[in-house]
Amino acid sequence: MNNLGIANKVRLHLIYSNQWKNITSIELQNSNNTITYILHGENPNNVKEYVLAINKTHKVTVEDMDKLFEKIESNQGIELEKILMGIIDTDGSILFYYVHKGVKNFSD
């Protein structure tokens, strides 16, 4: 889904522009023998989050995201509500979007 170079660009941006700390890279093995790199770190509010770094030209389906949630949860032994996507544009800028697992009721 991504490569280590893209993940490192997003990692540096999180550290120097967004004041994240304790960021590590987690390698997840895919069924087609490729590796997806997920970043795990603490945002400025000391909340631990998982980040998927991708290039803007990469297509990601709902099925891809569902499998990613499952892989992270089984690998880390946790249950996730959301993943932060760091999308690198062609000009080098990075946009961040949250992807929630399933449909979320925001009135709770």
UniProtKB/TrEMBL annotation:
Any one of the GO CC terms: nucleus
Cross-referenced Gene3D superfamilies: 3.40.1350.10
Source organism superkingdom: Eukaryota
InterPro entries in the record: tRNA-endonuc_su_Sen15, tRNA_endonuc-like_dom_sf, tRNA_intron_Endo_cat-like_sf
Pfam families: Sen15
Gene Ontology molecular-function annotations: nucleic acid binding
GO biological process assignments: tRNA splicing, via endonucleolytic cleavage and ligation
Record keywords, A-Z: tRNA processing
Keyword Manganese: no
Domain tRNA-splicing endonuclease subunit Sen15: from-to ranges: 10-104
Family designation: Belongs to the SEN15 family.
Name of the protein: tRNA-splicing endonuclease subunit Sen15 domain-containing protein
